[in-house]
Design brief:
By secondary structure, the protein is of the alpha/beta class. It contains 7 helices and 10 strands. The longest helix is centred in the C-terminal third of the chain and has 18 residues. The two termini are 33 Å apart.
Length: 226
């Protein structure tokens, strides 16, 4: 369980992202400032093209902002070099993508073990089996992604994300490729693990049910908070 803190776990200060295009310079994000506390759950909502996934990629350190700052546990994420950023990302962050992003050549167990091994966390196999059992996939541990349903693959992705007990989990449309019933199970699983581990959840979603489950929403319109 993450220990409580009076300072925010995650903070953005006047974040902006611009890119060059044949039509000229485009502004994808502009003047984005917010604070998110430890163990909080926040939905990022808004229409397609509003900049939600761009924002999530920057929060994850997978993309760089043009202007502004991202502070993770009070530390300026983009003042770090790439190796330092990768180290912090591996230690503090978990990711769940709409497209699952499982490695097809690895079993479910091996996919979950991977971030544990990359972070030199001991007993990777034992811990991976424990978290797979927690998401109801103990009997599917030795199956490859192609042998699993979409819902099972997403549960493996969630197990992989939570295996390192991250301080912050970022999810991009985690129920987007799932039917309603399976999506509802995934939602329950995310919030169960949030309660048990105190992990902060930041979710990009079009799913109104999922957004309502979060403690608050950040709404993006044309790259700005509204």
């Amino acid at each position: 369980m993450n220990s409580p803190s009076t300072s925010p776990l995650l903070e953005t200060r006047r974040l902006g992202k611009q890119v060059d295009s044949p039509e000229g310079r485009l502004s994808l994000l502009e003047d984005i400032s917010f604070r998110i506390d430890a163990a909080e759950s926040v939905a990022i909502v808004g229409p397609s093209g509003a900049g939600k996934s761009t924002l999530l990629g920057i929060l994850a350190g997978l993309d760089t902002p043009s202007t502004g700052q991202v502070l993770l546990q009070g530390e300026d994420f983009f003042a770090l070099d790439e190796d330092q950023r990768a180290q912090r990302r591996g230690a503090l962050l978990g990711f769940v993508f709409q497209s699952f992003q499982l490695l097809p050549s690895l079993t479910a167990l091996e996919n979950v073990m991977l971030p544990l091994e990359l972070n030199d966390i001991g007993d990777a196999r034992v811990r991976a089996l424990e978290v797979l059992a927690r998401v109801g996939l103990a009997r599917r541990a030795r199956h490859y992604p192609r042998q699993l349903s979409g819902g099972e693959q997403q549960r493996v992705a969630i197990a992989r994300a939570f295996a390192v007990q991250p301080a912050l989990l970022l999810a991009d449309e985690p129920t987007g490729n799932l039917d309603n019933r399976t999506g509802a199970r995934i939602v329950e699983l995310l919030f169960e693990l949030n309660r048990e581990q105190g992990t902060t959840l930041v979710l990009v979603t079009h799913d109104e049910h999922l957004a309502r489950r979060c403690q608050r929403r950040l709404r993006l319109e044309a790259g700005r908070l509204s």
